[in-house]
Design a protein that fits this description.
The chain is of the alpha+beta class. The chain has one domain: Beta-Lactamase. It is 47% helix and 18% strand. Strands 2-1-4-3 form a 4-stranded antiparallel β-sheet. α2 crosses α6. The longest helix is centred in the first third of the chain and has 17 residues.
Length: 159
């Protein structure tokens, strides 16, 4: 499954569109279960992580994933925590300026990775309260899986 690289404006629009009316512990489980189901359907060898602040609310590792995926989850999640935007958007912003996150952010690449797959969980009236991260596929596919899950999940929430 190939996904064309989205533009900065498309990524910003995704984040605005996917602001949720609320996000609870039960919501984290439901979103995580949805991601697991989607990953199983496509036999995706991914690790899935959902956080609210510093607390991990959901984690799953599917067949074919490894501890390396958990390390990528942590690195991508730290980008969301620092910038308040998806890891893919942050990396795309640097590329749009003709550079890379690794060359220009001045952040340790062992701790931060601006690669697709980590998306902010934003709640109306509260802003970014956490993150949902997938690792194990090419970055565009990790990002697309998270966005597709959030789009499906958002339709189940009532305001």
């Amino acid at each position: 499954m190939s996904h064309p690289a989205p533009t900065v404006s498309e990524l910003i629009a995704q984040e605005r569109r996917l602001t949720l009316p609320h996000f609870s512990y039960d919501d984290a489980y439901a979103l995580g279960a949805l991601l697991v189901s989607m990953a199983r359907e496509s036999h995706a060898p991914v690790a899935i992580d959902i956080r609210r602040g510093a607390q991990q609310l959901f984690h799953a590792a599917l067949p074919g994933s490894s501890a390396d995926n958990d390390a990528w989850v942590d690195r991508k999640r730290r980008v969301v925590e620092r910038y308040g935007e998806s890891s893919y958007l942050v990396g795309t912003r640097f590329r749009a300026k003709g550079t890379t996150f690794e060359d220009s952010s001045r952040l340790d690449p062992d701790l931060y990775a601006a690669h697709g797959g980590s998306f902010p969980i934003a709640v109306e009236g509260a802003g970014v309260i956490g993150s949902v991260t997938v690792s194990g596929l090419p970055q565009a596919e990790d990002h697309a899986m998270v966005v597709a899950a959030l789009e499906r999940f958002a339709t189940t929430l009532d305001a």
